[in-house]
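Lecture notes, structural biology module. Today: joint structure prediction for complexes of two components.
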Amino acid sequence: MSKSLRGNFKWLVGAVVGVSLLGGCGAPADATDTTPAAGEQTTNGVTATVALAKASLSAREDVTVTVTLTNTSSQPVSLLKWYTPGEGLKEGRLTVTRDGQAVQYIGPHFKRVAPRPEDYVTLAPGESLSGPVAVSGRYDLSETGSYAIRYAQEAHDNVGGVSAFASNEVSVWVEGRSSALESDRVVTAESLSYSGACTTSQQSAISTAVSGALTYSTNAYNYLNTTTPSGTARYTTWFGAYTSSGWSTVKSHYLNIKNAFSSAAIVVDCSCTDSGTYAYVYPGSPYKIYVCGAFWSAPQTGTDSKAGTLVHEMSHFTVVAGTNDYAYGQSAAKSLAKSNPTNARANADNHEYFAENNPAQN
Amino acid sequence: MPVSLRCTMSVPSRVTAGQPVEVTFRLENPTSQPVHVLRWNTPLEGLMGNLFQVTRDGMDVPYQGPMLKRADPGATDYTTISPAGSAEGKVEASLAYNFREPGTYRIAFRDTLLDVAPGPTALPRTREGFQSQAVTCAPVETQVTKP
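The predicted structure, tokenised, for the full assembly:
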């Protein structure tokens, strides 16, 4: 679940770092605060409880609660999967408040057709259903404070006589997300591991390249963050005619790229030996990067370098920048910037070359 | 000088969910000269990149296959299409795009051939020498039905 797309890009890093915390997907047995004082039971016999694994969470940590629904009646009950925990829950059925004030739901909304029979899950008498429900990415946790979370279903959420019910409330201290993620982070040791039988010398070259990629992406982000947005030579060469929205888009890409290099659990695989390929990724499988034969003969920095190749690859991940390969090579990338700036801003090599900035432009 | 290539695609009009979705891609050379086409990121090579824009009932279906950063090509990365000849490639699109949900899927080729070289050109060219070219292939649709 930590790999799922977040409603808000800015929280990507929090999501990533939260993985270890949520390793057990919040299984109640792992929870330190399982106190789920019985939820408010209703006449139809469904009880809801909410549990939380920690009482306070830093801005880097994902916030997820475990919701358990139990049929305490002697009859089977049917619940609409759309609003129950697990794979189906896609909409806010949590009530979140901070210091007594309602917190806005910022996650996705879905336009639904009428429910079909397969959209229901049936709980036998005594049966429970339990699963994680994301709070970060779905609710506005930009402010630091004490958040109270409860789960509730309304009567019209279901058919067949299941009336409204609500859970107990859990409280958690959450460090606001906005400040921590936007500010320039102190570069910490990235989490880097290897697969595919990388040799010791390959591991050493990869580690240097990851540091180089972090430097490139941090410098690219800082350039876009501190330069007055305009049609600078460096920007227009790689991303085409200046627009303020284009500048913001690219800036957000480098923010995500640099954050991934500084904090994500990156795995570099050495099993590919094809000399015609530098590297590849599966865009839906962050943060695993496969390096190939051409990677080893590339310079450490500069055009089509090891460090630049890693920037290119990192930009492909859907959760990072979701770029495509519309053009390869500096010449084609420059042409793309002229002919189709939208695609240039969605092209991996353009991101690499802007970051490599070779030859240097201002 | 651009060579005008004609592109067509086809796909079965109905596919049962879970079955292969085979897309046939065909390039025709209507000119009187041979033409060399770099196969990268076209179905002539296989499914080695996000070649298609796929939608299901209007919603984007993300690409899940590999995306490669490539070094300069070799001569064998090109296919030569003779005058009035054609080249065809078939890919199993469901290997890299999720076609398991029933619905109407639209498949559009992302309209760029990365390097197209007229007959006498010495091959391969480096990436810096690429002459890319847009081709227009009419998008195709397939109906995925429940098993």
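Point to remember: Chain A touches chain B at residues 275-284, 290, 294, 309, 312-313, 316, 318, 324-332, 335, 348-349 (CB under 8 Å).
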